[in-house]
Design a protein that fits this description.
Length: about 240
Amino acid sequence: MKSKMLFFLLLVSANSLFAQTVPNDSLNNRPKKENFADDWAALTKYQKENVLLPPPTKKEKRVVFLGSSIFEFWKQKDPAYFNNNPYLDRGISGQISPQLLIRFRQDVINLQPKVVIILAGSNDIAGNTGHVTNDKIMDNIKSMAELARLHHIKVILCKYLPVYQYPWNKSIQPADTIIALNELIVAYAKKKHYTVLDYWTPLVDERKGQRADLTVDGVHPNVAGYKIMEEVTEVAIKKALKNRH
């Protein structure tokens, strides 16, 4: 009787131990569902599109455009530019540089591009989600560039477009801050042998803002503005692809 009781207690203990070591989801044979209620970096924005995207072919020179509204609106205003080229637009309106960094693996590395174009800084300066200094913007840009290089992705860093005033935050005077950020970007790119894409020079006016004939609101380009951006972008992509670094 005692031996039967001992066997029973050992059996109960073993079952209890097994239940503690195996996750409930495994026991139920159900994968845990992700909760994106706090999706600050908007990882869900391109998640499905990324899953459906086939890997690049051997000859494909895939380029990812990573940025905020400037890039997101670009595809809306001139979809042919992206549809007719191996270019992936991964812009999300309103995002600041740490948000771009958070989604860099999902929206850049995992897509296996040859080149990434990083446009960051304006929303940080505008104070869209708190205020981020130029030094902090550069920290995030550097981290993204280093991740790209680690994964053998050519890096293009953009001089940000000129902005005289943000319509949604007129208390900020961003023109000189953007110029200072662009100087930091160029210096870093030169040091690390990254390609620089200058969006500032062809769009600037006498106030160090955006030319009125090339913008819809002083911040975002119109179609004519994007056409100019396309010209300088093509030059930068060709240069980056030839870059040994």
